[in-house]
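Q: My collaborator sent me two sequences in one message, no labels, and asked for predicted structures for both. Can we handle them in order? The first one she listed is below.
A: Yes, handling them in the order given. First sequence, followed by its structure tokens:
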Amino acid sequence: MNQKKIDRINELARKAKAEGLTEEELRERDALRREYIDSVVGNLRQELDHMWVVDENGNKRKVGKQGGVKS
């Protein structure tokens, strides 16, 4: 997600607190928020896909998608 979209999310948040949003602005805000969340989750998944856990014996295990560690 680019900085322009993040700035727009913040602009809409400020406007929502100050005076409220129109129906169109509410839809835009919701779509931008969903895109932002999807972006963050996608980046986190990429990081976890490249992460390994090393136990006290030096054994390496890949971190799994379900929050566990693959054997």
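Q: And the one she listed second?
A: Here it is, processed independently of the first:
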Amino acid sequence: MTNKQGYAAYANNKIMTASPAELTLMLYEGAIKFCNIALDSIEKKDIERAHTNIVKVENIIEEFTATLNHKYPVAKDFENVYSYLRQRLIDANIKKDPEILEEVLEHLRTMRDTWKEVMQKAGSRA
């Protein structure tokens, strides 16, 4: 087995055995990664690569929106934030504007960090 195949098997196993909370964290990490790649691509004038990675971030945000549990009132607040981020990503993609992507990245990092805190607090109660 080559190193790539071994890593792919490891990554797949990590996803398949992750809890819902860990999967959410992985999605935040992925969105941040793809946003950073898009920023780098804009800087290097690689418009196609920038577009591809902005769309990946949009898809992750859409997944967050689709999985909201609306039995909790806070879901509406998250839906509004996700809607705002999706619109900013569309604007960033049309304009290939790194400032808009930096704004989205800041929000994603804050949300990821908050999610990590929630996971730690929930784990400490176990």
